[in-house]
Write a structure and sequence with these properties.
The protein is mainly alpha-helical. Among the domains are: 3-57 and 282-336, no CATH class; 59-264, no CATH class. The protein has helices at 3-20, 25-40, 45-55, 62-75, 78-90, 96-112, 115-132, 137-148, 158-167, 172-201, 211-236, 242-260, 266-299, 302-311, 317-336, 347-372, 378-389, 405-420, 422-429, 438-444, 457-481, 486-497, 515-528, 532-540, 551-574, 579-594, 609-621, 634-652, 669-695, 700-711, 733-747, 751-754; strands spanning 661-662, 665-666. Strands 1-2 form a two-stranded antiparallel ribbon. β1 (661-662) and β2 form a beta hairpin. It starts with a helix and ends in an 11-residue tail after the last helix.
Length: 765
């Protein structure tokens, strides 16, 4: 298979897969283009260049102007005037309101040039009005949607401007002039179809036709229709370019909306302009990504191949036109067939979505390694990406430094995105998911007790991400100040604050031989292990004392201090380290194991074996819930200890009612049961997977620590065969698949994944 063929397959398959998965069209176009360029070995800087080139056109400036004009006139009462004019023209017919809807869309399309603007402005008025007069809701909606397509044909259509710009050598004025007849034919056909349905369903007639009423309404609506004269006749007559006429039309629409129809005041103008910005951002990013996609198609000669495939069948121009229409029809039907009637997301849906997203993203994340040949084995590439997105940090690469900078950055970036969670990132980025995706969000968030920063899920996610970004930026700045290059500081900052552990050097932080950098890493890894909600409140209220009011933080701090002191003593007594060196190495390794980061500044495999036990305990306990760390979590460990304490007290006082308090709040019995079930499942999985590892020929010490590392998303293992500074490349494929599964299970808090394998999950309730 040639590189060209592989690139075409990657481009088209990835695009249609993302469309099927309901990715936003701009993201699907852009991501598929990036994957295609990676296959071809092109520099990713070309993506930015092509996107900028795609929107750097004087003619394309007409699109923002036309959108602005449509929004201003749609918000300024123009819709009502056009509906009244359409009613005066065709409202007297059987199914008159449907005819009014169609004709009004024709008028409004000639002003806004946008199908979506037509649906929003005309539909919001006509659909309720038609339903109130006895028209079916489905029929009313269908008429509105189909008639809004007239905006694509009737000038000034955005599509015409974009086509003329991208195709080159085509007059916008000619396209404008040619659009009226097809637009009128579409309107007539829709009116005929609506009339037939109206007669069949016995929909009502409107008021009888009146010449006087028509002339009067025409006089009222002429201010709106004059915009068409300015735009179309100005362009066709050669007085203005499309961009110039659009700019003049914006000024005209502003004056008409504010001073003539008085549907807008100056405050409303600002709201309308804000709406324009939202619409423009969608349109321009789509144009920009489409430019990259089109370049990929052109470079790969896909249009030529498609044209050759069609012309090989027939050279009849009419049949060719019919074939093209048939292809478009099939693609449109395929896109529409997947729209579910029930869009409500239930708990089961949320669990399935989260598990599927993490698996699919790991698969797609592995493609750059496979395509470039840096990791030719799919098992190894998938393992590497699961380790990245789950912030585990285990690697199968024996020579990390041999990778190009692009792949090294991709490894670090996967950990940074996975630190807070993929769905968490999506919720923060797309507020529209705020309501329906609560179940999805809940399935991914870590910890048994969750607190809210804001009543709205998306706002709370944004606050958390603000803490995350600020922490990452501060970490990168400190790394740079203490001797790292900007490239090194960005990569290590992403993996440190994500508590991931991927490094761009084979010997991790040991490569720099800098105590300042090691202390910086220890500090920021420790901060990243604190509950981000608690960090936000502490910083926002400027009260450091809030940290020490948290029972979980005090337990986390105690574990860090106690384990560091023990390891420090062992290194001084049995390895001959001085006090500063032993403290630095002890604190670094304890914090990295406790926060499940996995970076190293010394070879812990050479330390006294008793320190392995302490580090293994850290691997099990973990840091705080609501942080980027994995493992069992400090809050669960603390609650288990309190349960044990209560049970011992219960033996002495059988009739006593003993509460279990966390931060002064009693934990309900159900949460205690869930806690013990989680602990039991955690331990059972460790035992089962350890058995599998030993069966694969791995020594028992490595088998146990590999299980702890995978399920806890820690990264390094403890042992002589596979030490904390070694890769996991020597593991057999079965062990790699098992570890990948364990990483996903551990990152998603076990039950989110395991419940999918229960028979009840697949039964209808």
């Amino acid at each position: 298979m040639t590189v060209q063929t592989l690139a075409i397959i990657v481009l088209l398959v990835s695009f249609f897969v993302m469309i099927f998965l309901r990715f936003p069209i701009a993201y699907a176009v852009g991501l598929s283009s990036v994957l295609c360029m990676l296959v071809q070995g092109q520099a990713l800087t070309d993506v930015c260049r092509l996107m900028v080139k795609g929107i750097s056109s004087f003619s394309l400036m007409a699109v923002p102007f036309f959108i602005t004009m449509g929004v201003l006139m749609g918000s300024g009462g123009i819709s009502e005037k056009l509906i009244a004019l359409a009613d005066a023209c065709v409202g007297w017919m059987r199914g008159g309101m449907a005819m009014v809807n169609i004709v009004a869309s024709y008028f409004f399309g000639g002003i806004s040039g946008s199908a979506s603007a037509d649906t929003a402005s005309i539909g919001s008025i006509m659909i309720p009005m038609m339903v109130d007069q006895g028209y079916g809701a489905d029929f009313s909606t269908a008429v509105t949607i189909t008639s809004s397509c007239e905006g694509l044909l009737v000038p000034p259509s955005h599509n015409m401007v974009i086509y003329a710009t991208t195709a080159g050598g085509i007059s916008v004025g000619s396209l404008f002039l040619a659009g009226y007849l097809p637009g009128a034919l579409l309107a007539i056909v829709l009116m005929i179809g609506s009339y037939i349905i109206s007669v069949k369903e016995n929909y009502p007639k409107g008021s009888p036709f009146s010449i006087k009423g028509f002339v009067k309404q025409l006089g009222t609506s002429i201010w709106a229709l004059a915009a068409v004269i300015i735009v179309v006749f100005g362009v066709v007559g050669g007085v203005f370019t499309a961009t110039e006429s659009a700019a003049i039309a914006v000024i005209y629409s502003l004056l008409v909306s504010v001073f003539v129809y008085k549907g807008l005041d100056w405050k409303g103008v600002w709201h309308a302009l804000d709406e324009c910005v939202n619409t423009l951002s969608i349109v321009l990013i789509l144009i920009a990504t489409s430019a990259v996609f089109g370049n990929c198609l052109t470079m790969l000669h896909v249009p030529d191949l498609a044209a050759t495939a069609i012309t090989d069948l027939t050279d009849n121009p009419y049949i060719i036109a019919l074939l093209i229409d048939l292809i478009l029809l099939v693609l449109g039907l395929a896109a529409s067939l997947k729209s579910p009637k029930d869009t409500k997301i239930y708990a089961r849906d949320g669990l399935a979505i989260v598990a599927l997203v993490w698996v699919l993203l790991s698969v797609f994340g592995a493609l750059p390694f496979i395509i470039t040949g840096e990791i030719p084995s799919f098992v190894d590439a998938f393992f590497e990406m699961v380790s990245g997105f789950t912030t585990t940090g285990s690697t199968i690469l024996n020579d990390v430094e041999a990778l190009p900078h692009g792949l090294l950055f991709w490894r670090s970036f996967t950990q940074w995105i996975g630190g807070l969670g993929i769905v968490f990132f999506t919720v923060a980025l797309l507020p529209s998911l705020d309501g329906g995706y609560v179940k999805v969000f809940s399935a991914e968030i870590t910890g048994p007790i969750q607190t809210k920063l804001h009543p709205r899920l998306s706002m709370g996610a944004k606050y958390i991400w603000m803490v995350y970004v600020c922490l990452t930026a501060a970490c990168a700045g400190c790394y740079w100040i203490f001797g790292m290059s900007p490239w090194e500081s960005i990569n290590y900052a992403m993996t440190s604050t994500a508590t991931g552990g991927f490094s761009i050097y084979n010997d991790s932080m040991e490569n720099f031989h800098s105590p300042a950098l090691e202390y910086t890493c220890t500090t920021f890894c420790f901060l990243a292990g604190i509950n981000f909600t608690l960090l936000y409140f502490t910083v926002a209220r400027r009260r450091i004392g809030m940290l020490f009011k948290s029972d979980e933080f005090k337990f986390y701090l105690f574990m860090t201090a106690a384990c560091t002191a023990f390891v420090m003593f062992q290194l001084m007594a049995y390895r001959g380290y001085d006090a500063e060196h032993s403290f630095r190495c002890g604190a670094f390794q304890v914090v990295n194991f406790l926060t499940t980061t996995g970076l190293f500044n010394d070879n812990a495999a050479l330390w006294p074996h008793v320190t392995w036990v302490v580090l293994a305990v850290c691997m099990f306990v973990g840091a705080c819930s609501g942080s980027t760390s994995g493992a069992f979590k400090s809050i669960r460990s603390m609650m288990v200890l309190k349960v044990i304490r209560n049970e011992l007290r219960q033996i002495l006082h059988p009739n006593a009612v003993l509460p279990l308090r966390v931060d002064g709040v009693n934990v309900p019995i159900q949460k205690r049961v869930t806690l013990l079930a989680f602990l039991a499942t955690y331990v059972i999985m460790l035992l089962v997977v350890a058995f599998i590892m030993i069966a694969c020929g791995i020594d028992h010490t490595n088998a146990i620590t590999i299980c702890l590392s995978s399920l806890g998303n820690v990264g390094p293992s403890l042992g002589l065969e596979i030490g904390p500074t070694m890769s996991w490349s020597q593991l057999p494929d079965l062990a790699k698949w098992t570890c990948s599964f364990m990483m996903l299970v551990g990152r998603l808090e076990i039950f989110t994944v395991l419940v999918i394998f229960t028979p009840t999950f697949w039964k209808d309730n």
